[in-house]
Amino acid sequence: MSAEAVGTSSYAHADLLPGVLGSTVGYASTASEEALHRGVPAPWLTFILSLDGPVVWSEDEADLGTAAERREDVVLGPLHTRAAFVRMPRRQAGIQLTVHPLAARRLLGVRTSELDQGRVSGVDVLGPQVEALRQRLVETPTWPERFVVLEAYVRDRVERAPASASVRPELAEAWRWLRRTGGRERLDGLARHVALSHRHLGTLFSTELGLSPKRVARLVRFDAAMGRLTASVRTGRPVTFAALATEAGYADQSHLDREFRAHLGTSPTGWLAEELRNVQAGGHRNGEA
């Protein structure tokens, strides 16, 4: 489902706080009608501050339009392994941040693994101060000024975090290894690299992230494939899915197609047809600054 774009703009701040935030994008758009957006799973937490009406979303497409859908001005999305569905209004504005999952305790005060328990909201986690931040952002007239306000909030929370909020160095290095290898290497190499047993490494991942190393590696590889795909679209390069599969470390195009269907419930061409305008306008920006 798509809508004709009337006006779309995005404002990126790539280096707001490296190591804590991956990307920070302000967005404002109007469209001819409401649309369905299929949020892409990625190895990042999603933090959205809406500046124009609540974000209406659900982890189950069937919940949209029912009492089970979520309507939030401040959204904190956990590490999704499947698409999240957003009901996009004709007019919307806000700021979307991707948060490093190992920085969750420093910025949010909770582990990443805790965000998927009990369908917690952003205000539940961050308290009333985050609503005060959102209101201030609404009242701030320009994007550069908004980013200044946001950076002060993020930096203050991180600097106030206790020393116990830091993760074990083996886990931090395991994350860096997965990112360097694009999730393509065998995980026995990861265990050797950080000098931990498979079992111990799995316990660290499960406790901090709520996912196994294998599941995180799969997300990292899918994220890398999506990054290549969206970069090609933005620069106008032709997309060859067989080549994309090879570059991202999949066995073949059929393997890539299966991963798209598992993560997004649709094929690569189906997703691109839905999200082409959003990608061209600067949406779907993830990654580590």
Might you state the CATH topology name of the largest domain? Jelly Rolls
Q: What's the alpha carbon Rg, rounded to whole Å?
A: 19 Å
Categorize the overall geometry.
globular
Q: State the domain count.
A: 3
Q: Class of the largest domain, according to the CATH hierarchy?
A: Mainly Beta
Number of helix segments? 11
Largest sheet: 5 strands, antiparallel
Q: What CATH architecture label of the largest domain applies?
A: Sandwich
Helix content: 40-55%
Query: Which class best fits the helix and strand makeup?
Result: alpha+beta
Residue share in β-strands: 15-25%
What's the average pLDDT? 90
CATH homologous superfamily descriptor of the largest domain: Jelly Rolls
- Unreliable sequence segments: 1-5
Sequence of strands across the biggest β-sheet: 1-2-9-4-7
- N- and C-termini, Cα separation: 32 Å
- Please write the string of helix (H) and strand (E) elements: EEEEEEEEEHHHHHHHHHHH
Number of strands: 9
InterPro entries: AraC_XylS_family_regulators, HTH_AraC
Domain HTH araC/xylS-type: 186-274
Protein name: Helix-turn-helix domain-containing protein
Keywords: DNA-binding, Transcription, Transcription regulation
